[in-house]
TrEMBL record:
Localization terms from the record: Cytoplasm
Protein name: Corrinoid adenosyltransferase
Stated family: Belongs to the Cob(I)alamin adenosyltransferase family.
Catalyzed chemical reaction(s): 2 cob(II)alamin + reduced [electron-transfer flavoprotein] + 2 ATP = 2 adenosylcob(III)alamin + 2 triphosphate + oxidized [electron-transfer flavoprotein] + 3 H(+); 2 cob(II)yrinate a,c diamide + reduced [electron-transfer flavoprotein] + 2 ATP = 2 adenosylcob(III)yrinate a,c-diamide + 2 triphosphate + oxidized [electron-transfer flavoprotein] + 3 H(+)
Record GO cellular component, one term: cytoplasm
Metabolic or biological pathway: Cofactor biosynthesis; adenosylcobalamin biosynthesis; adenosylcobalamin from cob(II)yrinate a,c-diamide: step 2/7
Keywords: ATP-binding, Cobalamin biosynthesis, Cytoplasm, Nucleotide-binding, Transferase
Pfam families membership: Cob_adeno_trans
GO biological process: cobalamin biosynthetic process
Catalytic class of the enzyme: transferase
PANTHER family: CORRINOID ADENOSYLTRANSFERASE, CORRINOID ADENOSYLTRANSFERASE MMAB
Length: 190
C-alpha cells in the first residue's frame, strides 16, 4: 500500500527525480519521458471515461490501472536485477496484451472494413479515444527509444503498441459502430 501524507518533497527542485529503484536521474531522461508520457496517457483516458458508459467505461478503468502498473514498470530499470529486489517490482505481463487483443477482436467483428482513413472526431467519446491513441503512440515511441540504450520490459512496448490499436477500434465503436466515422477525403480542399 502506498501512503502519501506529504505531497511536496522539494527533492526535485534541481531538475532530478527518483526512479523506482531509488536512483536519481534528470527529469528529461528517456526513462522519465517514457513513464511520464504513460502517465499523461492515463490522464487522457480519465477524460475519455467521462463520456463512456457500460463495458467501454469498464475497459477504460482496467486500462487506467494497467497504465499505472506500466508506469511502475518503466520507472524501475534493471530487469535482470528483479530477483535481487527487496520486493518484486510490477512488470507488464503477456496476459495484459492478450486481453487487449481479445477485446479488439470482439469490437472489430461488428465493424465494417475500412475503405478510407478516418479523421479523429465524430462523437465526443471517439474524439477523446483518438487523442488517447496518439498519446499511446508517443508513449510507445519513448519506450522504444529508451529500449535502444537501457533495459526495458519488451511486454511494456507490446502493450503500448496494442493499446493504440485498442483505442482506434474503440473510437470507431464510439462512432455508432463506425457508421459515423469521419472519412478522410484526399485533396478535398484543393
Amino acid at each position: 500500500m502506498v501512503v502519501l501524507n506529504k505531497i511536496y518533497t522539494r527533492t526535485g527542485d534541481k531538475g532530478q527525480t527518483a526512479l523506482g529503484n531509488g536512483a536519481r536521474v534528470e527529469k528529461y531522461s528517456a526513462r522519465v519521458a517514457a513513464y511520464g508520457t504513460t502517465d499523461e496517457l492515463n490522464s487522457f483516458v480519465g477524460v475519455a471515461r467521462l463520456e463512456a458508459a457500460g463495458e467501454t467505461a469498464n475497459a477504460l478503468s482496467r486500462i487506467q490501472n494497467d497504465l499505472f502498473d506500466l508506469g511502475a514498470d518503466l520507472c524501475r530499470p534493471g530487469m535482470d536485477k528483479d530477483a535481487e529486489a527487496e520486493y518484486p517490482p510490477l512488470r507488464a505481463v503477456p496476459e495484459m496484451v492478450d486481453r487487449l487483443e481479445a477485446e479488439i477482436d470482439v469490437m472489430n467483428k461488428s465493424l465494417d472494413t475500412l475503405r478510407s482513413f478516418i479523421l479523429p472526431g465524430g462523437s465526443a467519446l471517439s474524439a477523446h479515444l483518438h487523442v488517447c491513441r496518439t498519446v499511446a503512440r508517443r508513449a510507445e515511441r519513448h519506450a522504444v527509444e529508451l529500449a535502444a540504450s537501457e533495459d526495458v520490459n519488451p511486454v511494456a512496448i507490446r502493450y503500448l503498441n496494442r493499446l493504440s490499436d485498442w483505442f482506434f477500434v474503440a473510437a470507431r465503436m464510439a462512432n455508432n459502430g463506425g457508421k459515423d466515422d469521419v472519412l478522410w477525403v484526399p485533396g478535398a480542399n484543393r
